[in-house]
Amino acid sequence: MTESVFIAICGRPEHISDYIFASVNEILYQRKVHDQKLFALNKINNQSYHLAQLKNTNEYLQKITTQTSQWIFEQQLDSFIVKLFSVRTNQVLEQWCFKIIYTETEPQQEIKSIFGQILAEVQKMKPLEHKTVFDIVVNVQGAEGQKGWEKCE
User: Fold this and answer.
1) What is the DSSP string of 72-139?
2) What is residue 66's DSSP assignment?
3) Mean pLDDT computed over 45-58
4) Using CA atoms, how far apart are residues 33 and 132, in angstroms rounded to an integer?
5) Which domains does the chain have, with CATH numbers?
6) What is the pTM of this model?
7) How many of the other CB atoms lie within 10 Å of CB of 140?
8) What span, in angstroms and rounded, lies between the C-alpha atoms of 130 and 88?
């Protein structure tokens, strides 16, 4: 059975891409998608998070945040979903659904709230029993938002 987590990311468009990047990295660390030794502490708005030190992971996440940044600035990005799959069965084990809410929230308070929600959810979950991989799904207002989206293989 797939476990679903719902978290709101509130903030100014200029901060949301950074929140998404940091949140995905923190989920990968907390859920041990990659060996935790392969992460280093980094900061966003004076809040620490774990940043993957893996070239492929960082390139993929940078590509995603670059591709979504225009939709964010146009306030078209509705949600962002991180799916964790079992390598063995290809079954979705977890999906972390981030609802994007465009506000004038203070950046430091918002990222602290997001990380707090991630940690609270992880504490309720059982450890993942299988080696996992992740993928990302974005939902954009209107079909025209999907033009130029590059599918990850």
Assistant:
1) HHTT-EEEEEEEEEETTT--EEEEEEEEEEE----HHHHHHHHHHHHHHHHHHSPPP-S-EEEEEEEE
2) H
3) 93
4) 6
5) 3-146 (3.30.900.10)
6) 0.90
7) 19
8) 7
